TrEMBL record:
It holds the Pfam family ACAS_N. It comes from Bailinhaonella thermotolerans. This is Acetoacetate--CoA ligase. PROSITE patterns: AMP_BINDING (PS00455). Belongs to the ATP-dependent AMP-binding enzyme family. Its EC number is 6.2.1.16. Keywords: ATP-binding, Ligase, Nucleotide-binding. Residues 1-19 have a biased composition (Pro residues). Residues 61-115 form the Acetyl-coenzyme A synthetase N-terminal domain. One of its GO terms (biological process) is lipid metabolic process. It comes from the Bacteria. The lineage of its organism: Bacteria, Bacillati, Actinomycetota, Actinomycetes, Streptosporangiales.
Length: 674
């Protein structure tokens, strides 16, 4: 091996010191030391760039600037570094910087699934650890996974599945789902999945758009102590999806599904060697669906190549996944984090597929599972962390977390107190890596890495290859103040398009209408001079109180700190005459607590003291449940539209909510206001 040039040294604490305008903490909670890059994927990539491309960077800012200015150089470097296999090489890396319309790796023929099984020496390495409340544990090696995928592929071919056909799954987060997905991908067919806690109407709204030919189902599952029978929903799906020619039953709940191919039958017979249909870079791999809070869910199409290279980058350079690591991130099969989880296999890390109630038998259950499986990367939601904090959970005392080196957080903004709690529990040994991204890109936009500092309340910065900025309403870049989160250069994992959107008009309207040629993501962000960022909530749910914009996350941070409050939701109804409008705070009191005038006064005082008089709500109203979609996000915008008099069935899909009845109180209130 040739002697490597002197590697680039990235600073431990880039940028100017913090000021109280941004953070009250003078020092970061985590700062990479001089040896932080040793043994990391990012360190190896930097060494590779120096040796193979003669590129050296003085600091993180320079590395990121190169990654978004030299698109062809950065993405081709990833292609070579991660050794992407192509049956036919590409003719050019990218056609230009136009959005939408940039074409990536034109001419290449490849297959995502071909990269998931490793080399012969990986066959005995553990790939999947299935943990379920419905059945005993399941473990698959890479070799066993390859064999099952080959069998499932042969079974799907017997059912007539070929390139471009759609295979959909009403399955939980179990190894069979992974096997079916990879078998589908290997054929060049298109995958889509929904978790079985979805009701039939919501699933039909999703799957019906792609006109599937094969439907995989379970008959039921356990959620904590409760058995859930889904045979009625399966029957409704069969009735509501007329293009389905075959139903495959994965036995899971203990009951039969009539007139279905069993999983064992699908995998029966000699499959022969596992082969792969090589497809163009942008050939559809899977369809992800938005939460469906306005009309039918958008069917977002992601391609083989875009997901492949983006997940290599995100899993390797941001999450630092490599052989020997184990990733546990609780997710249902309806959330893009499921797709990100299974892509950890690209890097030969093991994955833990967890199905059931993540808070069973108590809130510390996920920590125990992490300890039992030896997880090195654990992903959780901000709500989970804050609940653990509130209940006094001490993770290191309930489980052996000695292998844990990174804690991923995504789904909604994490309050400052959550950062401090994680640091109190784990110190500097565990990297707190908070991210913000979404279904639209099936990855992160801003996030951390082992070579970036972490400040309380802040996300470390834009990911490599993501030219993320904050825009004001006129399309000017702003720093130090709130703005729209935008992306100003194309990325390979930007969607191929929306299913059925033949002329691309809905796709363009969704992301490029407000700032032509620039991706508007829909989050409200403040970038700091050092490059880190603070997400304050969805920009379309951001409150505009007399011309001053207020992020929703800061309300929740204050309100939900009170022990009397379990959950909350804030909505601002604008005054068409230009006044302050009406600021409404909805709270779910803790068990045994009544929302009386004294508690309302404490809430108002807390908001006035911690934030400002502008943050004091006009009314505080108790509700039995705060509406959240199935990824845990509060659905502020549909509630606002309901309160403004719009038809609830047109602005919100109850099937997309964890508690469909959670909208009832707002519908009733809208009726009273009429």
């Amino acid at each position: 091996m040739p002697e490597l040039p002197e590697p680039p040294a990235l600073p431990e604490n880039p940028g100017p010191p913090r000021t109280p305008a941004f953070s009250a903490d003078p020092e970061p909670l985590y700062s990479p030391g001089p040896d932080a890059r040793e043994g990391t994927q990012l360190g190896r990539f930097l060494d590779w760039l120096a040796a193979e491309r003669g590129l050296r960077f003085d600091d993180w800012a320079a590395l990121h600037a190169w990654s978004v200015s030299d698109l062809a150089g950065f993405w081709s470097a990833l292609w070579e570094f991660f050794q992407i296999k192509a049956a036919k090489p590409y003719d050019e890396v990218v056609s230009g910087r136009e959005m939408p319309g940039a074409v990536w790796f034109r001419g290449a023929l490849l297959n995502y699934a071909e990269h998931m099984f490793g080399e012969p020496e990986d066959a005995g390495r553990v790939a999947v650890l299935g943990r379920s409340q419905t059945r005993p544990d399941v473990t698959l090696t890479f070799g066993e996974l390859r064999e099952q995928v080959a069998r499932a592929r042969a079974g799907l071919r017997r059912l007539g599945v070929g390139r471009g056909d759609r295979v959909v799954a009403y399955l939980p987060n179990i190894p069979e789902t992974l096997v079916a997905f990879l078998a589908t991908a290997s054929l060049g067919a298109v995958w889509a999945s929904c978790a079985p806690e979805f009701g039939a109407p919501g699933v039909i709204d999703r799957f019906g758009q792609v006109e599937p030919t094969v439907l995989l189902v379970v008959d039921g599952y356990r959620y904590g102590e409760r058995h859930v029978d889904r045979r009625g929903e399966v029957a409704a799906l069969r009735e509501g999806l007329p293009t389905v020619r075959h139903v495959v039953h994965v036995p899971y709940g203990g009951n039969a599904v009539p007139d279905a191919v069993t999983w064992d039958d699908l995998l029966d017979g000699d499959p022969g060697p596992l082969e792969f249909e090589h497809v163009p870079f942008d050939h559809p791999l899977f369809v992800l669906f938005t939460s469906g809070t306005t009309g039918k869910p958008k069917a977002i199409v992601h391609g083989h190549g875009g997901i492949l290279i983006e997940h290599f980058k995100n899993g390797g350079l941001s999450w630092d996944l490599k052989p020997g690591d184990r990733m546990l991130w609780f997710s249902t099969t309806a959330w893009m984090l499921w797709n990100a989880l299974v892509s950890a296999l690209l890097l030969r890390a093991s994955i833990v597929m967890l199905d059931g109630d993540p808070a069973y038998p108590d809130i510390a259950g996920q920590w125990r599972t992490a300890g039992e499986t030896g997880a090195t990367l654990v992903g959780v939601s901000p709500a989970y962390l804050m609940t653990c904090r509130k209940q006094g959970v001490r993770p290191a005392e309930v489980a052996d977390l000695s292998r844990l080196n990174q804690l991923g957080v995504a789904g909604s903004p994490l309050p400052v107190e959550g950062y401090h709690w994680v640091h109190e529990q784990f110190g500097g040994r565990v990297l707190l890596n908070v991210g913000c991204g979404g279904t639209d890109l099936c990855s992160a936009i801003i996030q951390g890495s082992p070579l970036q500092p972490v400040w309380a309340g802040e996300i470390s910065g834009p990911c490599l290859g993501v030219d993320a900025k904050a825009y004001d309403p006129d399309g000017n870049v702003v720093v130090g103040e709130l703005g729209e989160l935008v992306i100003t250069a194309p990325m390979p994992s930007m969607p191929v398009g929306f299913w059925g959107d033949e002329d691309g008009s809905r796709y363009r309207a969704a992301y490029f209408e407000d700032y032509p040629g620039v991706w508007r993501h829909g989050d409200w962000v403040r970038f700091l001079p050092t490059g880190s960022a603070i997400i304050t909530g969805r920009s379309d749910a951001t409150l505009n109180r007399g011309g001053v914009r207020l992020g929703t996350a800061e309300f929740y941070r204050v309100v939900e700190e009170l022990p009397e409050i379990d959950d909350s939701l804030i909505v601002h109804l604008e005054d068409r005459d230009g006044g302050l409008g009406e600021l409404l705070l909805f709270v779910r009191p803790a068990d045994g607590v009544d929302l009386d005038d004294a508690l309302r006064d404490r809430l108002r005082l807390a908001l006035r003291t911690a934030l400002s008089p502008r943050h004091v709500p006009d009314r505080i109203i108790a509700v039995a449940s705060v509406p959240r979609n199935r990824t845990g996000k509060k659905v502020e915008v549909p509630v606002k539209r309901i309160l403004l008099g719009e038809d609830p069935d047109k602005v919100a899909s109850r099937e997309s909510l964890t508690d469909p009845s959670s909208l009832d109180a707002f519908v009733a209130l809208a009726g009273d206001r009429a």
